[in-house]
Design goal:
By secondary structure, the chain is mostly helical. It has one domain: Plant lipid-transfer and hydrophobic proteins (Hydrophobic Seed Protein). The protein is 53% helix and 0% strand. The chain has 4 helices and no strands. Helix 1 runs antiparallel to helix 4 and helix 2 packs parallel to helix 4. The radius of gyration is 13 Å and the shape is globular. The termini are close together.
Length: 97
């Protein structure tokens, strides 16, 4: 997370997390849930978040994602029943960053 706050180099563990997240979030509902989870995590970082670094994180890690990374990217609301074990996987992945 320090890299996203302009504090230090990009850790290898961060790129591992980006790669894992990209591999487990394959369906549209999974990607929407991942987006919601990441937006929540980003908002917890407050105004110190470097949006440019956040947007460029997949590329910096050599991970190709088929959608733009932005706090402004709209995420359609998911119904509670659509939230799967992906949430736990995302929380684990984010805890490793």
């Amino acid at each position: 997370m320090h890299w996203l706050l302009d504090r230090g180099p990009l850790p290898r563990a961060c790129c591992t997390g980006v790669s894992k997240l990209n591999s487990i979030a394959r369906t549209t509902p999974d990607r929407q849930q991942a987006c919601r989870c990441l937006k929540t995590a980003a908002s917890a970082l407050g105004s110190g978040l470097n949006a440019g670094r956040a947007a460029g994180l997949p590329k910096a890690c050599g991970v190709n994602v088929p959608f733009p990374i932005s706090l402004l990217t709209p995420v359609h609301q998911l119904q509670q029943r659509e939230i799967s074990s992906l949430r736990m996987k995302l929380e684990w992945t984010l805890s490793m960053l």
